[in-house]
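seq:
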Amino acid sequence: MQLNKQVEFHKTLGDPTRLKIIYLLSEGPLHVGAVAGKLGLTAPTISHHLSRLKDCNLVYSRREKNTVYYHINTKVLMHHGKVLQQFAEGTKGEERNMDQRVLEKQKVMNAFIGKDGKVSQLPAQQKKRLYLLEHWVEGLEIGRKYEEKEINAYIKQFHDDYATVRREFIIHQFMFRENSIYERNPKEMWGSVKS
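struct:
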């Protein structure tokens, strides 16, 4: 658990308008105009609040034709709720699990990544494969849209079979693809490595 993320989460939700937006989005995705209409505020005001919520990964957006719809990120809300629950219960189990996860991930990196930084063969075991995919996708910029050829070139730095890795990025929700344009998903959406 990172304290600064918890603080930023609670600061962001400390605004009544943002809480109302979260409540509205909990009933389903909406575009800026719909949220503005329901709350009786201007579209630029709603865009500002949605931008703040997006910065904390509390919402994410998806374009459908010419309209951008905002969705609530329930995984993030549940994560922060669990942290509060742990405070109430006085447990630190998540921290121990994270420490163990970091050690496991490092072992996989050491075992599969050669001195040249490349992987000759993807691990057969899904847990190990997810660690590698996660490691690679962390090098991509959040919010940047990549053309397919850019993603291919990026992957080829680490593994020759860029088509398989690119496909796995989508399957395990590390990335979102639309019309051959790729974008990194928030971490909370990634296919998690089961302990």
